[in-house]
Write a structure and sequence with these properties.
This protein is mostly helical. The chain has helices at about 10-25, 30-35, 40-50, 55-65. Helix 3 packs across helix 4 (about 55-65).
């Protein structure tokens, strides 16, 4: 069963995920976070900004999101 408080469609959930990303990866600016549209973009940015192989960045992102969806809020 999905936890409704983790529904990324809510502004609160989106803000919480952006806060978690910023806390883990401090090389992300607020503008970077606002422009991320999905999990794949996040993985690519983590890999690029931190010089990680994509599979390692994917594992880090998966660990941080813990099954939560990351979709851009319009």
């Amino acid at each position: 069963m999905t936890n409704p408080s983790m529904n990324i469609q809510t502004p609160e959930a989106a803000k919480m995920i952006r806060t978690d990303i910023k806390a883990k990866w401090d090389k992300f600016s607020d503008q970077d976070l606002a422009s991320l549209k999905n999990k794949d973009e996040l993985v690519n940015q983590v890999a690029t900004k931190y010089g990680l192989e994509r599979n390692l960045a994917q594992k880090d992102v998966d660990s941080l999101l813990k099954g939560r969806e990351f979709l851009h809020q319009a």
